Amino acid sequence: MSDDDHAVPVFVLATANPDKTTEIAAILGQGVALRPRPSDVPEVVEDGETLLDNARLKARALVEATGLPAIADDTGLEVDALGGRPGVYSARYAGEDATYADNVDRLLEELGGVPDARRGARFSTVALAAFPDGSEVAAEGVVEGTIADEARGAAGFGYDPVFVPAEGDGRTFAEMTPDEKHALSHRGRAFRSLADRLGVDQAP
To answer: Is 90 exceeded by the pLDDT of residue 44?
Structure first.
């Protein structure tokens, strides 16, 4: 462990998704020292009814497995024309083993013929830090937007190619640079809020 690790709080990161790991590390910057989820810790069954439930399940599982504080998050995309779906099931909307492209394809198929005025949507992320003493700190980030008619852009992941944030300039998240996306995104807002509540320095 380096000297720097003693100067900042250490958390195990519950996700093993490399895309999410990269984003979270970029958003939090040097304010925390993130440890990867141990390879012998299995995926947590995300059977909670809310994003907060799932974030808590994941964080608590890592605390129990490692004895260290842990950070987890869960994200959902709510589409107005679909009654709020896919919501908490966003990551597995097209099936348990769905790829990003599978989920996007299903979403676009279900929105086929839906006019722009009814394609409103929002991304929500709940970020949660859990501690061995049973305490926790949680924060939420939300961004409003619309679902594009087709996928655009090669950056990002998940539903980024079809989500156009209302506060942006008409580009999808997948057409933005990472810094541009983090400034507006649900995950950026959730983790900046979490860092603030934890009292740690944030990325510049």
So the answer is: no
